[in-house]
Amino acid sequence: MVKGRIPDEEARERLILWIRRRMDEFGITPQAIADSIQQDLENRPVFRDARGNEWNGQGEMPTWLRAAKNAGVSPDFFRIDRAPSPTAEDGEIDPRQLDLFF
User: Fold this and answer.
1) CATH pick for 45-102 out of 1.20.120, 1.10.12, 1.10.10, 4.10.430
2) What Pfam families does the entry give (predicted)?
């Protein structure tokens, strides 16, 4: 162990404790987190700009996309293509292509 460095397991436990305290502080429940994740999965973004602004195509067009459209840029320029399949040519899953959130 390097002097002054917190072991990984201890750091993990401290982080979990900090997160739980913040959740209590703001009234966030595990169910609220699960519901939010499910909503995100059901309403994935369709458009994204270089700054990370996203829109799922529902409701009013956001300002960033409307401004681009008014400047003559097609909204399709910002369309997110489907992610490539995480399988390699031999049919095995390439772990470098896995996304932890999906």
Assistant:
1) 4.10.430
2) Histone_HNS
